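Title: Comparing notes on inverse folding

I've been comparing how different people in this forum approach sequence design from structure. To keep things fair, I'm posting one structure and asking everyone to reply with a full sequence. Here's the target:
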């Protein structure tokens, strides 16, 4: 199968981190968000990926070329941010077989192998996660056999608690793009954008059966608070790493401290990642992600993001510091 990954957004909720780094390349658990998904695609045997790029697209291209040369990568620029349907439409000319569509704002524990085991009469899979705060999401209503009936955006009543997570497999790709084109030919949604979910509704209205697959876990990486929550999950489930040494170091697990980090008179954790080449002295850190080559001195930080090469000194509280920036206080 082929894969479409739309990632043209600017990541405004994660500024200033995203002024220089595309949102999919921000680190969580010591790795770029997108790397977890690309690793899953390697295991699935995917060969070709169509990236829909925009903001900082050349940075994405350079990363994929260096870290994942085994993929045959195509890049299509989305000049106008007109919604998910508009993004996927740009890949239509390259799709000639079944397709997996992945939005990389989130990580997920999903059985992607379900796509290879789907009965012949089923047109695709839309993955979902049961949530309590259903009013925040587009929720999927399914029938008694587990097939999608419709998607309702932010319902007031609990007609379903299955949130649409932005992960789709489409076997009947011709009917799908017919639905995308029908969606784009109509009026936009309330936000002025065109939604891919309307294309799925078109498929169902034309007789297609789309199975609803549930994921075991779904972890948002789209804003500071949820990025830190996802970081904690990854540290607690295999990505933790205690420091190799240091002077007067107190650790509260889970943490991930890479090789080459210098620690002196510090209290680290819980939920902290620190990347290689960073120096932390006379400071405490909790619930924070610290990039590579960072220097932190005399600081008491929590719920913070510190970009590569930044300097933070004499600061107490919560900060978000862009790469190669300096913030000091007394």
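Reply #1:
Here's my take.
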């Amino acid at each position: 199968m082929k894969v479409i990954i739309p990632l043209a957004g600017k990541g405004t909720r994660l500024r200033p981190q995203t002024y220089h780094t595309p949102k999919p390349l921000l680190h969580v658990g010591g790795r770029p968000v997108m790397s977890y998904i690309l690793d899953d695609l390697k295991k699935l045997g995917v060969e070709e990926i169509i990236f829909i790029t925009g903001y900082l697209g050349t940075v994405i291209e350079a990363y994929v070329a260096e870290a994942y040369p085994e993929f045959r990568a195509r890049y299509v620029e989305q000049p106008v941010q007109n919604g998910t349907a508009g993004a996927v439409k740009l890949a239509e000319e390259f799709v000639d077989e079944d397709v997996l569509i992945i939005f990389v704002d989130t990580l997920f524990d999903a059985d992607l192998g379900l796509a290879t085991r789907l009965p012949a009469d089923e047109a695709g899979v839309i993955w979902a996660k049961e949530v309590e705060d259903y009013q925040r999401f587009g929720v999927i209503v399914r029938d008694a056999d587990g097939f999608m009936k419709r998607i309702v955006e932010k319902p007031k009543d609990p007609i379903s608690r299955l949130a649409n997570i932005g992960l789709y497999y489409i076997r009947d790709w011709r009917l799908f793009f017919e639905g995308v084109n029908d969606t784009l030919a109509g009026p936009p949604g309330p936000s002025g954008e065109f939604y891919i979910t309307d294309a799925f509704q078109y498929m169902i209205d034309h007789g297609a059966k789309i199975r609803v697959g549930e994921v075991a876990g779904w972890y948002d990486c789209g804003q500071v608070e949820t990025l830190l929550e996802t970081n904690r999950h990854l540290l607690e489930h295999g990505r933790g790493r205690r420091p190799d040494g240091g002077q007067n170091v107190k650790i509260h697990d889970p943490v991930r401290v890479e090789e080459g980090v210098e620690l002196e008179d510090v209290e680290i954790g819980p939920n902290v990642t620190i990347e290689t080449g960073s120096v932390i002295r006379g400071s405490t850190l909790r619930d924070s992600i610290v990039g590579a080559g960072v220097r932190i001195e005399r600081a008491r930080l929590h719920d913070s993001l510190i970009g590569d090469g930044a300097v933070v000194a004499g600061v107490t509280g919560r900060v978000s510091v862009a790469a190669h920036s300096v913030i000091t206080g007394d």
